[in-house]
């Protein structure tokens, strides 16, 4: 299997979703919210850091109010670029503002079984098998913990999941499932085993952490403490807002952006106040709530616009972005899934969001589907091709070849055609067959994607993790369970 990683870089397509003046207004509104309304930080350690830096702290309600200049000064310490290291150094990912990488999403609780096609509860084996298929797929650049290993103890579940991924892939791992002090400390020990020590881990972070905020304008205490431990050891860390219009955010998109932005940059500033220069990233998956039910939509025009707008904000603060894309509320791989996955990913890619999340999920990131994963990867490949735009030079204008063929001829036998024929996109799952063949077989992209996933799982053997490292990881996990 190829070890190549497909990423979008040097794009020719551009989009302006927010003007510089609009970004400034959102930033100023955000600072006003943090100073006058406040953000909840239910962590004693976080409150002490804020108080030491001049913030007004309500210890009873755990609400922090901070002047804007403190936030802005802290954010200036964020490194604008750094690498996400992989177990295989050849698969390291530079977060430099000029690459868009695709990852899986998480953390789902159900899986459409690859063999039976039936929906069931996710388990540790699913974590391993999804990682193996992703390891063999060039569109997938890094892992999130895709599904929950619900057959493992809750207090160590996140550790079992990251161990399973490291044993099943050589690519970078970003987890959203480590949100306690004990798990964060243990995860760092495990990552250090792969990197060759804590000092080397700081140079080559093979793990990154994403922590969810608690909108509106709040955080989870365990997540804050875990993030502070990660920042202390140089592990890239991001906070993700999922503020939703109508419910956990204002009905208006600008207001929702301001609420989510306040959550993210306040927590990001906290890490910089504690550990200046710690690698951080912005993370977001803002959405709308359904007017009929109040439920998370998992797709729709608001989601697509949020995907583009959030990267503009991350660029304003000059930090990388991990962005929810391939958001779909579809219950199966169908028209809705393709529509929502395509538009959300295109909008996030055209503004050059660094990390895209979501391939493989249905029903608002609850249900994992291998067929959906591989069809999402095809969507990413299409967007990858589109972002290259049209190259216009002497070679591509092909005047000599056009003259050789002349009126009424064809280009099939030309050397120029042979040189460039594979520049054209070749789909794996789009149906371009004659109608009669389709009418006879009545199969489709879902069948082909499922077959490819089965074949990959049967044949792909990732480079194994050193058994000694695996055993040491097992001991670390046991110590947490005790």
What would the keywords be for this entry?
single chain, 482 residues, alpha/beta, TIM Barrel, 8-stranded parallel β-barrel, 4-stranded mixed beta sheet, 18 helices, 13% strand, globular
| Helical fraction | 40-55%
Mean pLDDT: 95
> What is the CA-based Rg, rounded?
23 Å
- As a percent range, the share of strand residues is 5-15%
The CATH superfamily label of the largest domain reads Trimethylamine methyltransferase-like
CATH architecture of the largest domain: Alpha-Beta Barrel
Overall geometric form: globular
Distance between the termini: 40 Å
Query: Strand sequence of the main sheet, in spatial order?
Result: 6-9-10-11-12-14-16-17
What CATH calls the topology of the largest domain is TIM Barrel
Low-confidence stretches: none
Structural class based on helices, strands and sheet pairing: alpha/beta
| Count of the separate structural domains | 2
How many E-type strands?
A: 19
Query: Count the helices. How many?
Result: 18
Largest sheet: 8 strands, parallel, barrel
Summarize the structure.
With 482 residues, this protein is an alpha/beta fold.
Detailed description of the structure:
The chain has 482 residues and is of the alpha/beta class. It has two domains: 326 residues, TIM Barrel (Alpha-Beta Barrel); 30 residues, no CATH class. Helix content is 45%, strand content 13%. The strands form five sheets. An eight-stranded parallel beta barrel has the order 6-9-10-11-12-14-16-17, surrounded by seven helices. The protein has a four-stranded mixed beta sheet with strand order 8-7-19-18, with helices on one face. It has a three-stranded antiparallel beta sheet with strand order 1-3-2. Helix 5 runs parallel beside helix 6, helix 6 packs antiparallel against helix 18 and helix 10 packs parallel to helix 11. It is globular. The two termini are 40 Å apart. The relative contact order is 0.14. The mean pLDDT is 95.
